[in-house]
Each structure stands twice: as C-alpha cells, then as structure tokens.
Amino acid sequence: MLNTNQLSYWERETYFNNIDFLVVGAGIVGYSCALELKKNNPSASIIILERGFLPTGASSKNAGFACFGSPTELVDDLSHIHEEDVWNTVAMRWEGLKNLKSLIGLEHLDLQVNGSWDLIKKQEGSIYSDTVGKLDYLNKKTAEITGISEVYSIDKNVSYTFGFQGVTTSSSNKLEGQINTGKMNQLVIEKGIKCLFGIEVTSINPFEKTVHLETSFGEMKASKVAVCTNGFAEKFLPNKDVQPARAQAIGMELWVLVPLKNRL
Rounded mean pLDDT of 163-186? Predict the structure, then answer.
C-alpha cells in the first residue's frame, strides 16, 4: 500500500479526508462504538482502523463466547473481590450482552445460547466443593440480575457427553453461548462505515481542532478518535490505568480523544 500522501485525490477523498469519527480497533468494542456513533450521527464519516488483516485481539477468537460469569469464576472472584463489585460486574456484563444484541441484531450477531461448562478434574475437588456449597447463593444473585432462575447447575455427565478424558464433573451456566464476531464486519459495511485493515496506529496526538494519528502508512486526521483496543489501549493512553481483563469487552469504557477546546 502507498503512503497516505501518495494516494490519488479520490482515494484520499473517500477514505482519508474529512473524517468525523475514527475508531482504532476492529473488535467487538470498536464495531459497537462505530455503530452507536452512526446511529446517533447518520451523516457522519466514520472510519475503523485495524492493524491486522483480521482483528488481532480477542474479538475474533475467544471473545466469540457470550459470557457473563461462570460458577467457578464467580466463586474465585468472591474470595478476593468485594461482593458488591463482583455482582455489579456481572450485571454490567449481562446488560452489555443485551445491548450488543439490540445494537447488532440477531442476524448479524448469530447468538447461539448453547450453555457453558467449567470442566473440573479429580484433583480439583476443592474447587468442586466450593462451587457446590455456593450454588444456591450464585443462582439467587444471578436471578436478581437476569430474572431467570436456576442459571447454574452441576453436570456430572459432561465427560460422557463430550468425550473428555480426565474430567470428573462440571458446573454449567445455561444462559451463556456464542456469537459470530465475523458477521459484525458485514453489518458495519452495510451501515456505510468504512473499515481499513492492515494499518497500524503508532501514536495519537490531539490538537486544537483535530486529532492527528501517525500510522504505518502515514498521517491521518479526524475530528474525534475512539481508542477501542481494550488491553492494548495503554499504548495510546499512558495516563490511564487500562488493563486486559476476562469478559470485559462489552463493559469496557471507551476513551474518546477530542479537540482540546471541546474535551469531554
């Protein structure tokens, strides 16, 4: 690919000039951010940049699981995190999944609620006993959030059902499942949002009226920039405490860089 200053007038006009919103990161958060911006600003020019030829983060990999809290995970969290914080996080994850379903739509989300299982081996008996002992409590608190009873249960037949060896039992969540993150790209294109892959952003610099980005193919400018790279965001936001976290894609805060006079 040519450097941005070597492109034709039409190429620059279509992809690089007069960008209202530029989103860094073509994952679940980036796509969701771009779609929300388009919904609220129908005539806006929106560009998504992604450094890989496909999303290089978790969104096209393990984040294809629609998760909000497995039994063993919650039991572990409750052992070292304040109870209120644990359940507030679960609630945000659940609301995030509902919001994603509403924003993307069933056709493009391809949500399949197949359930999920925590696989427990024989030598992990303490994990099993801790989970069983708190199962009623987990179901009670989760029902308060989801409105659905008996979300969690013990499945001792998991090894037989799926053919696993060395697994003696499991705890399951009947509301979790999977989404097809690849279909989200089709939706953003249909909405008139442009995605440019293979362009790495190396720095982001806000000025008085625009934000300047240095990329692997030259400089780009936009009125506003959203950093949606989750665990990689610390590179662009060194003054913010941004750390990768399991199942946090939907609930993560989006930091938006705007011209200095209009800073949020």
Answer: 87
